[in-house]
Amino acid sequence: MKKINRRDFCTAALGTALVTQVSGLSAGTPLTTGKEDAPFIIDTNVSLGNWPFRTLKYAGAEKLGAKLKKHRITQAWAGHFDALFHKNIDAVNEALVNECNRFEKGFFQPFGTVNLAWPDWEETLRRCHENYKMKGVRIYPSYQTFNLTHPDFPRFLSEVTRRKMILQIVGDMDDSRNFHPIVNPRDYSLAPLVDMLQNEPNARVHLLYWNVRVSAKLLDDLMAKTRVMLDTARIESAGGVEALLEGNQNQRDRVFSFGGMEQTISEIPWSRAAKPVPADRLTFGSHAPFFPVENNLLKLFESELTLEQTRAIMEANARKLITT
Amino acid sequence: MSSTEFLLDPRLYGLPSKEELKSFRIWDSHYHGFYATNVPIKQHNAMLHYVERMGVERIISVDIGGTLAQPLEVMDHDAAQLDILHKLHDRMLGIIPIDPGFPQESIQKMDKWIKNGPCIGIKYVGGNKLGVTCNEPQNDAIIEHARKLNAVIYIHTWIKVGGDPRRPGGANLSGESAPWHVVELAKRFPDVQFICGHAGGDWELGVRTVRNQENVLFEYSGADPHSGSVDFAVKEIGIDRLVWGGHGPSRSFSTEFSKVLDADLTHRERMKIFGENYRKLCKPIFDKKGWQLKI
Prior knowledge:
The complex is a heterodimer.
Chain A: H1 6-14, H2 16-23, E1 41-48, H3 61-69, E2 73-80, H4 89-100, E3 108-112, H5 121-131, E4 136-139, H6 141-144, H7 153-162, E5 166-170, H8 192-196, E6 204-208, H9 216-225, E7 229-231, H10 240-246, E8 282-283, H11 293-302, H12 307-323
Parallel strand pairs in A: 1-2, 2-3, 3-4, 4-5, 5-6, 6-7, 7-8
Chain B: H1 18-23, E1 26-31, H2 40-53, E2 56-61, H3 78-87, E3 92-98, H4 103-115, E4 121-124, H5 139-149, E5 152-156, H6 179-188, E6 194-197, H7 203-210, E7 216-219, H8 229-236, E8 242-243, H9 253-261, H10 267-289
Parallel strand pairs in B: 1-2, 2-3, 3-4, 4-5, 5-6, 6-7, 7-8
């Protein structure tokens, strides 16, 4: 059997010219090592409280805050797991604020929730903004039993925009294949956003764990016709972030098409048929403490991003979104 | 410029450096680079960039010969796969999909690719034409033959919620095994080791199912990464029964690495999950083939 070393392996995969470039580097040495060049991170998708079906390892502001800080994260936008199921969401929002305040001041930014399926959502939104000074709200339509065609949704979107708040819309929280059997979150579509946002050009809408609900066509429309932002939490596949940034136009050598009986919706690399997503539309989102923080951090290393793209995704885009 | 090196120092972000990743001696026991309907070789070639970039020492393709949907069919790309397995032997191994609905044909494929070829094991895929799960009696001939060859046995398992009434496993495909099927099979072959793949898709139920069956190893790839999942498996099953898979390209290496990095483990323990346990599993077939292997 012919022996093959790492260099030969790389040659087989990438071609001789590239290996010549790579071999000029000492093994394992980052191309840029300076701490001063390394961006800090704003995590735009974390949750406090506890998942009702599992005791999470890093649940709660103190444990989660300490964990996030170990990973160069300096700010985290936090929802609360109780927002998915509680009817008294005013109490949930108050608890969220109190929980955020248990950690270093300003580290957790509370994103309360508003449920259009419950009466008097207007007052809940008012409290989030005026009483708690929240920068945004987070909704979970599949759990909160409404969808974006709810008759109040346009008015809700308008009111959030008028208050200059961010609206985070959660596509999913988990893989539907392993839900607890007693839970069956509703299907819903993000497609109505395309038309609705034509009427609300100043709306700041941010999609979290959005991927399973966004087809390539919808992704193209959202990028071309709206200013919707996306988090990284569920961007999957090898080099998934850079594939998203490249879109289909540069996929000549990175095919990743799938077929066969194992194919499921969560495994379809949706991004491959889409146009490039600009780097200024992505924010870092860990979905911690449900997902390991390491997951989304590593994606930014697995994908071959420029420093400018990395900085935008890690911090700059989120900072712009929250301060604009 | 395309590079296999990182732009920033991962240690600034609480992540392993490239050198540390390499020091884990990562063997990806669930490499799907060839899993593509039309262009398996092209996809595989593209995937190798990420294999190299993420410091993976060796990949074990689970799609050698045929396809997952048609595991017993001879495909145009079979010859190219064979060539790749020979040329990249020190970086790449292969296991072959079989179909328990057709035991004799599966055994013939095992002889072609394992006994007389470069492959080291078999894979039960996620469903099959005749709806035969791995616990059914006709599997015994396949397992007995695998035992003779010292072949690695990987069984795709999932516990998909669904059905009426809604229940774990109620939405499994026809012939798609669940961890309890693996346990039933493993009880009949206590001297053979089995990999329960994908942690059953539902690791909390999967761990409970296999924890008392000591000849069943547990592999986590292909499902969303849940913080605390590997901690739980280590506590209930033990560090020596866990093996690691990448499931790329449909899953990122980042997703699968993070399951292990999230766990409270020493470097040495991570080495076991990332590669050492799998190397021990395939040592007998390496010896049979006269191949060198540093555990």
